[in-house]
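User: Please look over both lines:
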Amino acid sequence: MDTVSTFSTEAAVFNLAYAWGQPAAQAVIRATPEDFVVDEQLSFTPTGSGEHLLVQIEKRHTNTDWVIRQLAKLLSLSKVDIGYAGLKDRHALTRQWFSLRLPQDREDQLQGMEDPNIHIGETHRHSRKLRPGALKANCFRISLRDVTATPDTLQARLEVIAKEGVPNYFGEQRFGIKNRNLDKAVALFKGGQVKSRHQRGLYFSAARSMLFNTILSHRVKSGTWNRAQVGDVFILDGRRNVFYQDDIDSTILERITNQAIHPTGPLWGRGSLPTSIVSWERQVLEPLSDWCTGLEAAGLESARRALRCPVRNLAWEWMGQQLILQFELTAGSYATSVLRELIDYRDVS
């Protein structure tokens, strides 16, 4: 796999096409955790009874895995007894949900949490463990500081993002500091071992994300990331259900326009759908074929991800040189992929 070891991952991760042109204005993000607020919205209503306790936790300066470890230690639980819906970054103020397989008469033990960066919020009994992806949306409130543009300069760009959305790129954080998650994936492809299944999955996910971003960047360059192409595989908005058809009829075009469905790109693995777009994707990824082969050999099954990310309920407010944004994204989409279409940001976290 010499191709893997010499491939420039930086080019694939960062040199991605812009849907609305490369922004000229600059700004600073994450000067404080409160500048980047994330609220998880569950996709279901808690049952009100059951062996699991749903807990909303507000955290700062900590990532999801750290919170899980603290909960396991405090409550004498195994990690398998703790569920979560999404991974959240440490450089933010996040309110996210966890499930604990905890008897009702032990709920008061949660009050023993002494970490000043972890605060216990509302709780509900529920019948099932919380699984990744069980979110309706993530709600963001982001403060951009030291913006080098006037409100009039960014108005048109904000309006087009609100109407059309942005390319659904995986964010830079997916790949780790200096792309180390990709380096770890290469090591696994070469026969290396990782004891933690979680870490192993993280590294393979980074490799899949890089390949997806590569395909999406090609679609952005051709202006087809938000349009139906012959042979496309489509996904229902906010769902995992996919379908394909070779003919593009008026119904498909209307559903694309209304953002009820989106064209998709590959999360690489074994198996594929017999469509012309999948054949095109293989051709595009031919220079990266060792990455594809490595993922297939690792036993990952292929899946699809929306190429377009709708940006819903986008609102903005100016306070001098500070621009405050509020919006909602489908679970799995990245706020930084929205920001990159608006402004050339510098993350100071």
